[in-house]
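FAQ

Q: What does a record look like?
A: Structure on top, sequence underneath. For example:
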């Protein structure tokens, strides 16, 4: 910053000797503007200029550089410098100028003469006389540095001569601190003249900053310029601190902090606001500044106003210090204890104002050696967010700070396990040590089990889940002496995490059976029921058994098991057709606390469960609203492609959009998903299923078929026999038919029928029967479709019912049962439109129009043959067999026989032999 005395340049007295002007990097434009005033002055006219800038911006250096240039140009140079230590001495600055203005060998005026002892006017005239005499000898350069610090009498002297030198070759250049409040009775413009050239010194650019620092232009020089605002004095102070690898934004100088603190002493309350602003950093709002500084709001406002005008604080709603180097310098000038206590107070104020945990935790980190018990929860929350936002090293810092507090054994275990999670991403071996340390600190068994369960629930999957499983296993072993009730819920959660994170079949469920008998705790019994339900689902043996176990598991209010990703995905797939169970599940999941997994928004699980149930009932529009609103919240947390629940939500939305006919939206969403990263058992399976359905629906049948088969292989690899999880076989069979692979379609349909019959629920059974109707022929196909419709009418699965009705109506139309087909297809159109399934509704409507046309007699015969009857009769008359006609028209032989029988009856002939003549006679009659 501008120094009081610059040893490189004279500050008073003698004229400046002629010597080359010092080089000032980046100040060439300002020097050019000042030297442009020389010709007018040399021609006999006065001129003036004012240089203004913030602390350290180079006002003094620029003034002395232009003074040296003026000396080279033939000016008599007189320079005086204002000083706060002399601002109370009358005439101090005027005396500096008088010494330089006196002619060589002439006696210098006494100091008392310039202070007006013989009268004020005489003293002013004396000063003006000195200026006039000097200007008479040649052009005169008057430079006054730091004029804002001049004493009142000197300022009056400068104001007195301002208009009296208009016709003299005098150049007056003043420098002043920007925004400095005016002192005494004379303003800056009154001293500079009526129309001074006003030049504001701004920060240097990258090239000039690099030159001052002795660096090559580049990122480091740019960072240094940003940290200092290009302030030359700050750049000089920064230079010796630029050690290899140092971040300029983290550097500071205690000397700069001391200088700035001293400079602020002349402004009431400014030092306290300065320190508060340095402590708060980006959190420096007006209220917090005033409170932390301990200053009345009106006084704080006045101090902030002054500091903003001085460019010490930014002119914004968050009046932070202008440059990071200044802030760091102020902090380094503060004693450590003062700084730590101030950060602790700032953390408390921020917490009370509702600031984000990350901002509060940033101050808690700096409040070292200060006991802040309430801050542990804040540090843990901030660490949790940091881990899932990809900053484990910051999370570890927060948690190590939390361990400095006096913690109960339970809280210490929780912090140690959380720290193990953060360190696991940095150093797995260190994380293992933290887990062992946590186990050694276990005091209360229930607390330890709860903490381990929470850890398992908070980890999305992958390697993180492996850490959670390992930690939970060690804690379970430590708690085993407490009996089955103490360890069983934790074992259940560990089993679920293990099953959901494996790339192969899940662990053997039988390993847990021996521990069932002695369970007495209701929560343990409910968790036992949950695992029995899971076992029933995986085996695919009995929907009734699975629903019964799920109902038992839902009798309590402890829904942690249902929050587990693996279990939630399976439970919603089974319970979607049971409205009462869905309602109970949503109530259990709708907890007040935030979800364990930071990627999962509050209320996400009940919203997703409700959306899955709506989709299962065929209410596609409402289901898509649930999924879309939830997906936006996952996007905000960055969990759409990484969190299993987010991936599940996206996959269900794609499936919903396919049924709604919104193919472009579905394609766009799938393009965002990471099929490589989403390798979890069910999340990736759902993505494959959704993509397979989309590809088949949009004409990429072969690729869609492969996706659906891959989906089936994954489920088989994991031992999942539950047919209602994703009905992949039904859609794969349709794709196989479209590809001409009838045998594959029949095989898939039979497999689906076997699995659905074993499971026994209406939806998968009705879906399998519908698929069977597509691959069977004649009466068998119709019986299968009629049975599918009867089965689905007893379930909420309206979309599947609409599909079955469409297939049956289409089959009836092909068989010549147009009246039946019309009624069936009318129901299909109405139901599919109610579901919002546009592609299905369009297909059903087209089939309905065809069926109605088939009932309309053909216009080219008098016997009332329908178009289909006439077509088949003509082909038969041409000699084609029933089989050949059926193949050509994609009909069954039975259908061909029915149409021919109707034609014989209408034409009044006994059989095929008379068919040609009857048709020819009919055409001749029509011709007449």
């Amino acid at each position: 910053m501008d120094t009081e005395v610059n040893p490189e340049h004279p500050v008073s007295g003698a004229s400046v000797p002629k010597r080359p002007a010092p080089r000032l990097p980046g100040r060439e434009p300002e020097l050019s503007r000042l030297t442009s005033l020389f010709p007018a002055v040399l021609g006999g006219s006065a001129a003036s200029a004012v240089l203004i800038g913030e602390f350290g911006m180079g006002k003094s250096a620029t003034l002395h550089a232009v003074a040296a240039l003026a000396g080279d140009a033939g000016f008599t140079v007189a320079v005086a410098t204002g000083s706060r230590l002399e601002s109370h001495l009358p005439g101090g600055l005027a005396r500096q100028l008088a010494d330089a203005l006196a002619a060589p060998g002439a006696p210098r005026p006494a100091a008392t003469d310039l202070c007006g002892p013989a009268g004020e006017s005489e003293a002013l005239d004396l000063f003006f006389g000195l200026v006039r005499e000097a200007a008479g000898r040649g052009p005169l350069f008057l430079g006054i540095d730091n004029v804002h610090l001049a004493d009142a009498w000197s300022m009056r002297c400068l104001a007195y001569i301002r208009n009296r030198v208009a016709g003299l070759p005098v150049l007056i250049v003043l420098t002043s601190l920007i925004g400095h409040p005016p002192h005494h009775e004379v303003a800056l413009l009154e001293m500079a003249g009526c129309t001074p050239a006003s030049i504001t010194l701004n920060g240097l650019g990258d090239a000039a900053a690099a030159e001052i620092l002795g660096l090559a232009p580049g990122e480091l020089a740019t960072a240094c310029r940003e940290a200092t605002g290009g302030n030359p004095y700050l750049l000089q102070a920064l230079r010796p601190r630029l050690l290899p690898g140092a971040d300029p934004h983290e550097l500071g100088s205690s000397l700069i902090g001391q200088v700035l603190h001293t400079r602020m002493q002349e402004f009431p309350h400014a030092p306290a606001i300065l320190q508060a602003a340095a402590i708060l950093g980006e959190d420096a709002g007006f209220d917090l500044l005033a409170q932390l500084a301990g200053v009345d709001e009106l006084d704080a406002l006045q101090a902030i106003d002054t500091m903003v005008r001085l460019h010490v604080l930014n002119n914004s709603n968050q009046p932070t210090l202008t440059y990071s180097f200044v802030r760091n310098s102020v902090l380094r000038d503060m004693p450590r204890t003062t700084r730590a206590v101030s950060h602790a107070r700032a953390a408390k104020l921020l917490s009370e104002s509702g600031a984000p945990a990350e901002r509060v935790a940033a101050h808690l980190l700096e409040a070292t050696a200060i006991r802040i018990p309430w801050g542990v929860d804040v540090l843990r929350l901030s660490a949790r967010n940091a881990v899932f936002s990809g900053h484990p090293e910051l999370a570890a810092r927060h948690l190590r700070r939390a361990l400095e507090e006096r913690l109960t054994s339970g809280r210490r275990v929780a912090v140690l396990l959380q720290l193990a999670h953060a360190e696991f991403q940095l150093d797995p071996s260190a994380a293992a040590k933290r887990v062992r340390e946590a186990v050694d600190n276990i005091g209360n068994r229930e607390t330890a089990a709860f903490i381990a369960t929470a850890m398992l629930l908070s980890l999305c999957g992958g390697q993180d889940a492996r850490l959670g499983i390992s930690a939970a296993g060690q804690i379970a072993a430590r708690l085993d002496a407490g009996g089955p009730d103490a360890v069983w819920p934790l074992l259940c959660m560990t089993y679920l995490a293990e099953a959901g994170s494996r790339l192969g079949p899940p662990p053997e469920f039988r390993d847990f059976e021996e521990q069932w008998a002695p369970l007495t705790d209701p929560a343990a019994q409910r968790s036992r029921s949950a695992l029995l339900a899971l076992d029933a689902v995986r085996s695919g043996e009995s929907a009734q058994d699975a629903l019964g176990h799920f109902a038992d598991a839902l009798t309590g209010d402890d829904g942690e098991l249902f929050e587990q990703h693996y279990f939630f995905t399976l439970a919603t797939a089974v319970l979607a057709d049971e409205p009462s169970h869905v309602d109970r599940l949503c109530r259990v999941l709708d907890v007040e606390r935030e979800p364990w997994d930071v990627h999962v928004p509050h209320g996400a699980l009940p919203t997703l469960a409700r959306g899955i149930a709506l989709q299962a009932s065929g209410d596609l529009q409402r289901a898509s609203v649930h999924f879309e609103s939830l997906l936006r919240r996952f996007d905000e947390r960055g969990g759409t492609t990484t969190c299993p629940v987010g991936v599940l939500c996206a996959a269900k939305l794609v499936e919903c959009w396919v049924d709604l006919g919104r193919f472009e939206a579905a394609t766009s969403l799938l393009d965002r998903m990471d099929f490589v990263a989403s390798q979890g058992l069910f999340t990736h399976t759902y993505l494959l299923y959704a993509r397979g359905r989309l590809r088949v629906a949009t004409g990429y049948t072969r690729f869609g078929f492969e996706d659906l088969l891959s989906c089936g292989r994954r489920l088989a690899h994991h031992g999942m026999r539950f047919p209602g999880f994703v009905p992949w076989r039904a859609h794969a069979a349709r794709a196989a038919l479209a590809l001409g692979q009838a045998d594959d379609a029949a095989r898939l349909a039979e497999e689906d029928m076997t699995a659905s019959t074993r499971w026994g629920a209406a939806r998968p059974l009705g879906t399998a029967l519908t698929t069977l109707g597509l691959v069977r022929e004649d009466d068998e196909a119709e019986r299968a479709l009629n049975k599918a419709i009867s089965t689905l009418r007893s379930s909420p699965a309206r979309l599947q019912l609409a599909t079955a009705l469409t297939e049956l109506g289409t089959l009836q139309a092909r068989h010549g049962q147009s009246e039946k087909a019309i009624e069936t297809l009318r129901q299909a159109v109405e139901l599919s439109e109610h579901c919002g399934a546009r592609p299905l509704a369009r297909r059903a409507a087209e089939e309905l129009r065809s069926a109605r046309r088939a009932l309309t007699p053909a216009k080219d015969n008098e016997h009332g043959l329908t178009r289909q009857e006439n077509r088949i009769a003509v082909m038969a008359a041409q000699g084609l067999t029933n089989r050949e006609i059926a193949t050509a028209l994609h009909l069954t032989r039975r259908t061909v026989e029915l149409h021919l029988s109707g034609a014989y009856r209408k034409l009044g002939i006994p059989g095929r032999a008379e068919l040609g003549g009857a048709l020819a006679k009919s055409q001749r009659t029509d011709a007449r």
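Q: Is there anything notable about this one?
A: The first strand starts at residue 47 and ends at 53.
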